[in-house]
Amino acid sequence: PYGKGLAQRALISARDGGWLEPHALCVVEESADAKFAAPEGFEEIDRRKYGIAEIVFLKLADEHKA
Fold it and tell me: How far apart, in whole angstroms, are the C-alpha atoms of residue 13 and residue 22?
């Protein structure tokens, strides 16, 4: 669901749980109005808007890699 902050929580859980490989690509789809911000430990690679949706491409920052 858009606008619920679930993407941030999912990314934090994946990071803290050690579920991400060092070169994993994370992709978030969110409402463009939600103004998604990557949580600490993630680097934004690209951001694209498609109508009311926004797609954000992220990777785990170097200091958080296993």
Answer: 15
